[in-house]
Amino acid sequence: MQRIWRLTMMVGLMALGSWWFSGVRADEQPQPAKGHATRVALIDMARLFKEYPRFEELRDELKKRIDDASDELKQRLEDVKRMQSDLKEYPAGSPEFKRLEQQILSAAKELESSKKKLQGEFFQKEAELYNTCYRTLRAEVARYAEMHGIELVLRFIAQEEEESDKPEEVMKRLQAQVVYHAGLDITDEVLATLR
Q1: What is the sign, positive or negative, of the torsion defined by CA atoms of 83, 85, 86, 88?
Q2: Cα 136 from chain centre
Q3: Which residues of 19-31 are buried (b: 16+ CB within 10 A; e: fewer)?
Q4: Which domains does the chain have, with CATH numbers?
Q5: pLDDT tens for each residue of 80-130
């Protein structure tokens, strides 16, 4: 019963909407400004990031810091493993066994805490890196657009992917914002200004 009521309400609302919009006269519809067409361009932001030299430099620096921190954590993990193998040399329950066991537990907790803290710091640094580069790239796109009288720049994905029968790939293609364009891509030109 409730389902029929909802269906009836939806049909009624659709009919009301049709009636409302059918009553709009042609002279009431917004008209484009005479003699002025909006200049539009497209930019592939993913490609811009990928080929922006400063982004690569900053990302490589961050990767080196992550690798250095990872090496340090691996060394500390090896120390804990060495302590665990040393533990076998003592009889269970002896004072030395208990002392070393406590050191192992403490070192393992500290190691896990350090790992989580470093991951958080590096996620934050990565976010800052992307944000900084995005602001720079966006400013460069705006500068280029202003210099060339472009009033609207839309983000799009330039690379056409191979046809696929995978549902997620089909849905991705169906949701693309730009379906067709004729020479509106300014990615190469903006990249040239960044090099």
Answers
A1: positive
A2: 16
A3: eeeeeeeeeeeee
A4: 2-194 (3.30.910.20)
A5: 889 888 888 888 888 888 898 899 899 989 989 998 998 999 999 999 999
